[in-house]
Amino acid sequence: xxxxxxxxxxxxxxxxxxxxxxxxxxxxxxxxxxxxxxxxxxxxxxxxxxxxxxxxxxxxxxxxxxxxxxxxxxxxxxxxxxxxxxxxxxxxxxxxxxxxxxxxxxxxxxxxxxxxxxxxxxxxxxxxxxxxxxxxxxxxxxxxxxxxxxxxxxxxxxxxxxxx
Length: 164
Hints:
alpha/beta, Rossmann fold, 7-stranded mixed sheet, 32% helix, 27% strand
């Protein structure tokens, strides 16, 4: 796990199970108003990662890609909501904003697949994750935190996931 800068982490996952465990580690640290952006091609592991995030969040709900419904919601035992938005089918950033992203962040955490399509309406501060396909089982993750809160969150994630 190379550490490129204090606000970046690179990791190679060797299996879908490892990708879910990585998401679980981050999910345990998320709080209301946290924003995680997952960028990468189809098959890069975004939804698999969100399965772990939701589990770490405390949800027992089944996680699936919201490509056609645009937003799925996963509740934890204290009734906070993890919103899971997929922007692949959106035609503009305004469409994403019309889905009440600001309200989603007030009510819970928000994880967005295909955030590059709506970048102009996203807050400046978040954790941005670039996922890429390495081979049939392996996926590369590049985590980048923008803003003090997210730099601290990434530091906590690094300690939780990698012990250092």
